[in-house]
Structures are given as structure tokens and as C-alpha cells.
């Protein structure tokens, strides 16, 4: 039976519309192969929304997102909006979208593709085969805890304060996502905290340990964040799924991503308890190359694969796209950001066409993201 999905597209700014157009074409091909019926509805966000409607996330855009099964976002931002007041900046649209959809879990894979090993700054033998998923808590912890602010002491000295706080329920819901993602992957979960120093981390560790018996198929380990940061560059292959709080996850997910060395290849997902998730590339709107057909569309395409996997529960269609990306790289096609000697330079549109040729012609098995 044909399955129907309503997808809201938020192309945003800069290279956003270019990489989104390629991704929609790819999804159309895959939908035919897997008997999926996608209805795409576009909405504005970021600078484009400021120009059209005067605010970075119009109510109508948020409403369209809420009504859909998943949201595919490209990127927002650009120099022309940088001097607007904070509530009118493109980034505010992104924060409002996350808050409006209750997205508390951020999934950031760092997968080394065999064809791009040399893009990493680390040695081949260290990064070959790396396949990590960082699950970061997104709406709590020190970025949101109260009290926060810059206060004056009795002696007239300024004192900056932020508070790292997590309730049990906030820990439980993100750790549950961590265990479930680990179950879908290689069954290994590493929880990262600073329980030797921070009380909030001790509660985190207690909750993770208490929940572990519910997931007997997952092998659980704990690491202090300083050690985790070292291990990620010393021996990243030891990790499968990492679950951690907002601050530690912010830092570790960027560190893990940089193991791959190619920003144009990195997708992400943000999920809530129910309702649609948001799937977007890690990179920004790349205004320096916007409108020049130079952007690498693959992070956006791989975000669509994450949407199929974690948002719509269509893992076969997701895997097909991922394998198509491997195959297109195997055939030597490269956009400027991942170009190396002997490869075929292509622009955004041609990369999309090459991927569609691959997806339409064959299915390649053997590599899983
Ligand atoms: P950026 O990621 O947009 O660009 C950094 C560098 O990487 C640039 O040289 C760019 O050309 C290149 N690059 C990025 N994506 C690429 C792709 N798909 N293909 C080829 N090259 C690519 O980061 P930035 O320059 O710091 O920020 C530009 C704008 O994007 C700013 O307004 C910033 O606020 C915004 N931004 C948005 C998001 C988001 O939408 N989630 C994330 C980061 C930055």
C-alpha cells in the first residue's frame, strides 16, 4: 500500500534553495521505487522570511511544519541580515522552530566515507571505518538553566552566571533516544558526563544506569567528557552512539564531525517526543558561493535520508539514498569542497543528476551509515 507523507520544505537562504531543489528531485525518484507518496509544501524561514513577511519564522510557516510528518530544512542566514535586532535575525527563526516543535534531541552522525578518508586531518588508520552518532540534548542544561545573566556583586564587581540543571524527566527522555538509536545501530551506547565534579552529571549518570536494564541488547559505558574528547581523536572507532547533555554535546558533536573533514557532507536530525522532526545539513547558508551552482548538495540529501530513517521509519529508502551517495563518490564526482586530484569536478545540479542516474540504474549494497 502506498504510504503518504506530508513534508514541509524550508529552503531558507544562500545555497539553501539550490541544495533543496536537488534533494526534492532525489526524493521523487526514491518515492517511486519504494511506493511512497510525498506531498511537498514550501514555507519561508530566516532571511527570506524577513524579506517577505518581516519576521524570521512567520506563524504560518510554523503551523505548516506542525501539520506535517517531517520538516526538511536547508540553511538560514546571510550578511545582509547580520545587523538587525536579535529578535529579527535569521538565527532567531531557527531557535523558534526548535522551541515551537519541542525538539529536544539532536542527532549528529560522523561517518567516514571510504572515498573521502583523505579529507580528514587525522591519519587514515585512525579514521578509516569511523561511524559515530552523537545524540545531544538540545533544550536544557546550561544554555537554558536559571539563574543566568551578568549580575553585580555587593562590591560592585560584575559576575557572570549560568546554571547547569537537568530534571530526571529531561534526562530520561534524551537517554531513551540514545538507547533506541544504539539499538538501531551497532548496540553500543556511551554516556558522557562530568560526574566526578558536577552534581547534575551525577544525577545524569544515575538515571542512565537505572534505565540500562530496559535495554539488555545495548552495551552501556560511561566516560567523563574530558576523556571522551581525547578518545574521539585518539581512537574514534571505539564509539558507536554517544548520548550527552547540551554543552558537552555541542562541543563533542563538532569534534566528531571534524573527524570527517568535509562540512558539505554532514547531515543532522532534531527530534521531539512526538510530532515532526527537523532534518538539516550541519553547514550554514554559504553566502560566498550562493547562486553559483557550486554548493555540495550531499549533506542536504543525506539529511533527507535521516528523515526517512528517523522521522518516517522508512529505513530501506534511507539506505538506498545513502548507498547512492557512496556510489556517486565512487564514480569520482566531486563538488569543489571535496575535490581531490583525478576526480571529476561538478556543480550542485550535476551532482544531483549524477546521483539520480545512480539511483535509477542500480542499488549498491554493503555500506551502512
Ligand atoms: P557556512 O557553513 O555557511 O560556510 C562555511 C564555509 O563552508 C564557506 O566557505 C562555505 O562556502 C563552505 N560550505 C558550507 N556549506 C557548503 C556546501 N554545502 N558546499 C560547499 N561548500 C560549503 O558557515 P558560515 O560562513 O560561518 O556562515 C554563513 C551563514 O550561515 C551565516 O549567516 C550563519 O549565521 C549561517 N549559519 C546557518 C546555519 C544553519 O542554518 N543551521 C548553521 C551555521 C551557519
What topology emerges from the helices and strands here?
Layout: E1 3-12, H1 16-33, E2 36-42, H2 46-53, H3 59-67, E3 70-75, H4 90-100, E4 105-111, H5 124-127, E5 131-137, E6 145-152, E7 158-163, H6 168-184, E8 188-193, H7 199-211, E9 219-224, H8 225-234, E10 241-244, H9 246-258, E11 267-271, E12 277-281, H10 298-311, H11 315-330, E13 333-334, E14 344-345, H12 348-361
Parallel strand pairs: 1-2, 1-3, 3-12, 5-10, 8-9, 8-10, 13-14
Antiparallel strand pairs: 4-5, 4-11, 6-7, 11-12
Helix pairs in contact: 1-10, 1-12, 2-4, 6-7, 8-9, 10-11, 11-12
This protein binds nicotinamide-adenine-dinucleotide (NAD).
Nicotinamide-adenine-dinucleotide (NAD) is lined by residues 15, 75-78, 91, 94, 263-264, 280, 283-289, 295-296, 299, 335, 337.
Largest sheet, strands/sense/barrel? 10 strands, mixed
Q: Which stretches are low in confidence, meaning pLDDT under 50 for 5 or more residues running? A: 365-369
* Rg, nearest Å: 21 Å
Sheet/helix structural class = alpha/beta
Helix content: 25-40%
Describe the structure.
By secondary structure, the chain is of the alpha/beta class. The chain folds into two domains: 1-101 and 275-369, 3-Layer(aba) Sandwich (Isopropylmalate Dehydrogenase); 113-259, Isopropylmalate Dehydrogenase. It is built from twelve helices and 14 strands. It has a ten-stranded mixed beta sheet, sandwiched between helices. Strands 6-7 form a two-stranded antiparallel ribbon. A hairpin with a 5-residue loop joins strand 6 (145-152) and strand 7 (158-163). Helix 1 (16-33) packs across helix 10, helix 1 packs parallel to helix 12 (348-361) and helix 2 packs across helix 4 (90-100). The longest helix is centred in the first third of the chain and has 18 residues, at 16-33. The radius of gyration is 21 Å and the shape is globular. 46% of the residues are buried. The model is unreliable at 365-369 (pLDDT under 50). The protein binds nicotinamide-adenine-dinucleotide.
Amino acid at each position: 500500500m502506498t504510504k503518504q507523507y506530508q513534508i514541509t520544505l524550508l529552503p531558507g537562504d544562500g545555497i539553501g534553495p539550490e541544495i533543496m531543489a536537488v534533494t526534492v528531485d532525489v526524493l521523487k525518484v526514491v518515492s517511486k521505487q519504494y511506493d511512497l507518496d510525498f506531498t511537498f509544501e514550501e514555507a519561508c524561514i530566516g532571511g527570506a522570511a524577513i524579506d517577505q513577511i518581516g519576521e524570521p519564522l512567520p506563524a504560518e510557516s510554523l503551523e505548516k511544519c506542525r501539520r506535517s510528518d517531517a520538516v526538511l530544512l536547508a540553511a538560514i542566514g546571510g550578511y545582509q541580515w547580520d545587523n538587525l535586532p536579535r529578535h529579527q535575525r535569521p538565527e532567531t527563526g531557527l531557535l523558534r522552530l526548535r522551541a515551537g516543535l519541542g525538539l529536544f534531541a539532536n542527532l549528529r552522525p560522523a561517518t567516514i566515507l571510504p572515498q573521502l578518508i583523505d579529507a580528514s586531518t587525522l591519519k587514515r588508520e585512525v579514521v578509516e571505518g569511523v561511524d559515530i552518532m552523537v545524540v545531544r540534548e538540545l533544550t536544557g542544561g546550561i544554555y537554558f538553566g536559571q539563574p543566568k545573566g551578568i549580575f553585580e556583586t555587593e562590591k560592585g564587581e560584575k559576575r557572570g552566571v549560568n546554571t547547569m540543571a537537568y530534571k530526571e524527566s529531561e534526562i530520561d527522555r534524551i537517554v531513551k533516544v540514545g538507547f533506541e538509536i544504539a539499538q538501531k545501530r551497532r548496540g553500543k551506547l556511551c554516556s558522557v558526563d562530568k560526574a566526578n565534579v558536577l552534581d547534575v552529571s551525577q544525577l545524569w549518570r544515575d538515571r542512565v544506569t537505572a534505565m540500562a536494564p530496559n535495554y539488555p541488547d545495548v552495551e552501556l559505558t560511561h566516560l567523563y567528557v574530558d576523556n571522551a574528547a581525547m578518545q574521539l581523536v585518539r581512537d574514534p572507532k571505539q564509539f558507536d552512539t554517544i548520548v550527552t547533555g547540551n554543552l558537552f554535546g555541542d562541543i563533542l558533536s563538532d569534534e566528531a564531525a571534524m573527524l570527517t573533514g568535509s562540512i558539505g557532507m554532514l547531515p543532522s536530525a532534531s527530534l521531539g517526543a512526538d510530532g515532526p522532526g527537523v532534518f538539516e545539513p550541519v553547514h550554514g547558508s554559504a553566502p560566498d558561493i550562493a547562486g553559483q551552482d557550486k554548493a555540495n548538495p550531499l549533506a542536504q540529501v543525506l539529511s533527507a535520508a535521516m528523515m526517512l530513517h528517523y522521522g518516517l521509519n522508512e529505513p530501506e529508502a534511507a539506505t538506498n539514498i545513502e548507498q547512492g551517495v557512496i556510489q556517486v563518490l565512487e564514480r569520482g564526482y566531486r563538488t569543489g569542497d571535496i575535490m581531490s586530484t583525478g576526480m571529476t569536478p561538478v556543480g550542485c545540479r550535476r551532482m544531483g543528476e549524477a546521483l539520480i542516474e545512480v539511483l535509477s540504474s542500480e542499488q549498491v549494497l554493503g555500506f551502512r551509515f
